[in-house]
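Quick question, first post here. What does this chain look like in 3D?
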Amino acid sequence: MIIVMDAAASERDVEAIRARLTQEGFSVHLSQGVSRTIIGVIGDRTRALRLSLEAMPGVEKVIPILNPFKLASRDFQPENTTIQVGPHLIGDKAVHLIAGPCAVESREQLLETAFAVKEAGATLLRGGAYKPRTSPYSFQGLEEKGLEILAEARERTGLLVTTEVMDTKFVPLVSQYADILQIGARNMQNFFLLREVAKTDKPVLLKRGPSATVEEWLMAAEYIMAGGNNRVIMCERGIRTFENYTRNTLDLSAVAVIKKLSHLPVIVDPSHGTGKWWLVQPMARAAIAAGADGLMVEVHPSPGEALSDGQQSLTPENFRSLVAGVREITRAVGRCLPDNASDRQVEKVASEE
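> Answer (accepted):
Ran it through. Tokens below.
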């Protein structure tokens, strides 16, 4: 539930409420707005209501939160959450582009891609070092070597890095290299992993599971937030339906639903959402029109030779075209792409080779 304090409530009144709840074993989260303070209460709602908190000084009203997700609920926090990642603010006016290959295949492949997407307008670099694959015979990633290559790409381009962490035992290692920890669709309900990333100070990009409802997706975010990490970025990447022409069915209505139910930022992955490179661009534009705070796009210098997901990867040239189209949509909806002019100047690959 949430406790709305009166506009005239003093700090002493707020502290008295906080102390009472803490003494009773509840978790307390303060949200101090311009005119009043809202106190979020996490715990047994029935027992909390029995405390007669509405009778305490400075309390305007007590509102039960009916949704099973509490911390992620817009009832709990009416204002949009913005998440600082280096110099970037995700969830603000700017629409961020996360781009790169499905998997880190080699140093040359990743650096070439990183320079290309940086020049085109991306602000973050994606690339899998550990790859969960349906077949045990498919390329599984370069593991720690892949993380080292991602770190080099960040150093040379200034692009911050997001990469997937697949297992609790890898969280400390991946955290050393990544700026954003990605929880893949297959692990959305790996609750032990969610609790582990909740212990870090890293933003977490939480992909929606292929068969997950919006409520289940938000409950997964709740696990991370209840563990102490409120820096959660939701990622819609398509769900499994009866349609088999596309890899998944990209649920763009989920963007608007998340925006209504939750204060968390949401981005869209049109690459996994469609599985076809030529559908990525139109779906990217549609995602921004629907209200997404960013995009995650797979880009590969030679998609036909990619070790994974080549059929849904854009060439650098096609990615530049996508950026141009997205820029037009951001202007139409009153948003913008980040200005990279102040970022570290992109090095030329040839000068370093």
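The domain at 2-63 is CATH 3.30.70.1140 (Alpha-Beta Plaits).
The two ends are 59 Å apart (CA to CA).
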